[in-house]
Design brief:
Elements lengths: L1 E4 L7 E3 L11 E4 L6 E5 L6 E5 L1 H13 L6
Antiparallel strand pairs: 1-5, 2-3, 3-4, 4-5
């Protein structure tokens, strides 16, 4: 896991479809970066981005789904 500035990445960011239309507290991910999944705060698009491995991201999603939380 590493941190970088989100603005330094050539990333195509997306929010979950579970995010409300009012721009609430959301995270965004990008899945077009080889060997990393960047995660950032949608309210601070030029702030830090957390980079995790695709395996770590898959494990995280499995944990959310296993807990019965909505995820897409």
């Amino acid at each position: 896991m590493t941190m970088t500035r989100a603005s330094e990445l050539d990333a195509t960011w997306r929010k979950s479809s579970y995010s409300g239309p009012n721009g609430g507290e959301c995270v965004e991910i990008a899945d077009n970066i080889p060997n990393a999944i960047p995660i950032r705060d949608s309210k601070n698009p030029n702030g830090p981005a957390l980079l995790v491995t695709p395996a770590a991201w898959t494990s995280f999603l499995a944990g959310i789904k296993g807990a019965g939380l909505g995820v897409d």
